[in-house]
Amino acid sequence: MAEKSKKVANQYERGYDYTKYWDNRDYENAAEHIAIRRLLKGQHYGSAADIGGGFGRLCILLRTFADKVTLAEPAASQLEAAKKVLEGTDIVQAQMQADDLKFADGELDLVTMVRVMHHIPEPSAEFAEISRVLAPGGTAIIEVANYGHFKNRRRHKKEGIELPKEPVSIRTVKADEPDAIAFVNHNIDTVVGQLAAAGLTLESKLSVSNLRSERVKKTLPKSAMLLIERATQKRLARNNFGPSIFLKLRKA
Q: Minimal CA–CA distance to 115: which of 87, 144, 156?
């Protein structure tokens, strides 16, 4: 069963340097940029926010699609790191949790939330907040850590077991504290249903980081991996192939 710990900002303040996580993950970073550009191509927005955006990794990209961008991040340490990343830009930095967004009703035209869902076993409060702050017709891009990726789907089929509909804990080491942050993968269909209940309707989806494998990274140059990534993101989304599914949603 999934972990149900409460999310609090200080869980991100325990000596972990998230900027280091992205060392040697150029392929994954580029794959996510490709996905966002594809989902937002030809569109422009007034006001946008990247929810749980860490040190601002995606904010500069979002600024090319929106007149105003806010990095909405719960961890003070991440916001401190973002000062250097976002130096010289007009991107606003604000400390807030995804389930308690400090925006007015309908204030935003675009919301992104990437690499956050794997910390949220039960996302109803977060989805309700995203829906609340979006203007009617506004767009949300939400990335979901996908339990039903190709390897898991193949394994479950071989064992004759259905994929779980509930989130699944993927923590590999014992939690160091009772309120340690959760690490889960989700059932995409379940998440889409939860989003619909919050008033967010699925428009399209992409399968992202389809070649996320240390073995592949050692075999193929990044340029080749990204060529394959571009060619497969839409095609493989039909079967939720990859470890990361990007959902594009619209508020009714």
A: 144
Which residue, 146, 120, 136, is CA-closest to 51? 120
Fold of 9-251: Rossmann fold (3.40.50)
Give the residue carrying structure tokens 């209940």.
Answer: 197
Type and span of the H or E element at 70:
strand 66-73
Three-class SS state of 58: coil
pLDDT of 180 reads 72
- How deeply is 163 buried, as exposed, middle or buried, from its count of CB atoms within 10 A (0-12, 13-18, 19+)? middle
Contact 178, 208 (CB under 8 A): no
Q: What's the pLDDT tens digit per position in 132-167?
A: 999 999 999 999 999 999 999 999 999 999 999 999
Query: Beta 108-113 vs 92-95: how paired, if at all?
Result: unpaired
Continuous H helices in 41-123: 59-63, 76-85
What tokens appear for 15 in the block?
């000596």
Residue 205 parent element (H or E): strand 200-208
**Which residues, including other chains, have CB under 8 Å from residue 77's CB and lie 6 or more apart?**
12, 13
- State the Cα–Cα distance between residues 54 and 152, nearest whole angstrom: 28
Helix and strand element counts for the chain (H, E)? 9, 9
The C-alpha atoms of residue 170 and residue 16 are separated, in whole angstroms, by 19
Q: What is the pTM of this model?
A: 0.93
Nearest to 109 by CA among 75, 88, 140, 73: 140
β-strand 134-145 against 200-208: which pairing, if any? Answer: unpaired
Over the stretch 164-200, which tens digit does the pLDDT of each residue have?
A: 999 999 987 666 665 678 899 999 999 999 999 999 9
Q: Side chain identity at 102, as an amino acid letter?
A: K
Cα–Cα distance measured from residue 16 to residue 78, given in angstroms and rounded to the nearest whole number: 10
